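Entry 14. Two folds queued back to back today. First construct below, sequence then structure tokens.
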Amino acid sequence: MPVDVTTEIVIERPCEQVAAYAGDPSHAPEWYANINSVRWQTPPPVGVGSRMDFVARFLGRTLAYTYEVVDYGPDRLVMRTAQGPFPMETTYTWHSAGASSTRMTLRNRGEPAGFAKVAAPMMAAAIRRANQKDLATLKQILESS
């Protein structure tokens, strides 16, 4: 069973500001509760072909994985990882939701293998809950600056 989770939030900041902050992987540990660190393999700034090593904690396990940026533009960032029991694609999109507001969408999708395949429904629910909290944190950070 594939996992495909989409969450979104409206942030009271212009698209350019939201994209600049959320689209910079260096900021991920500031707004993702489960991401402990990000280390660039390629020099910043982010662009197609950029690679970053992430260390995260999810469902009680520490996970280390490398994301590669496969699509990037002013309204989107798409990163993929292929290693591990749960290869994942993460997509951010930013669209105007008014004069100075942004609708940010966060989508995580992947095809679990092995034990992760059995746990896919539980993983999808956990990803959804985590994403909702993370987007709320992002909103708080950006709207208070």
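Second construct, same run, same settings:
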Amino acid sequence: MQKGGMLNSAIAKVLADLGHTDTIVIGDCGLPVPQGVQKIDLALKPGTPSFMEVVAEVAKNMVIEKVEIASEMEERNPAVFAAMKELFPTEQWIMDVDHEAFKEATKKAKCVIRTGEITPYANVILHSNVFF
């Protein structure tokens, strides 16, 4: 039994297994999961858990080098975009050309964590870094 940290065993295992440049996806409940990519489904009901709640908790337990989003988030979901900028002020940002390019990039992820989020473009790819 851990003293604290990430309590979800599937997410904890994925985080422990990440190497430099590996990626994970955290998405809203409508984001398609590519065939062959592990899905960790946290969605309970619309809005629960929220995208930002899950992103913030994963960020506490992951060394993150890059934050990748679809360009549509900035205009179509400005509240989530602002929250992401606040949570990740120093990480390198990648703005995919559009949501289709973002979805293509999810095919390389180690997992997709599905939240209960129901706002548009609330999806992120987190790129792993090393702590040394």
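Quick look at the second one. The longest helix spans residues 51-60. The beta strands are 23-27, 38-41, 64-70, 92-96, 111-114, 124-128.
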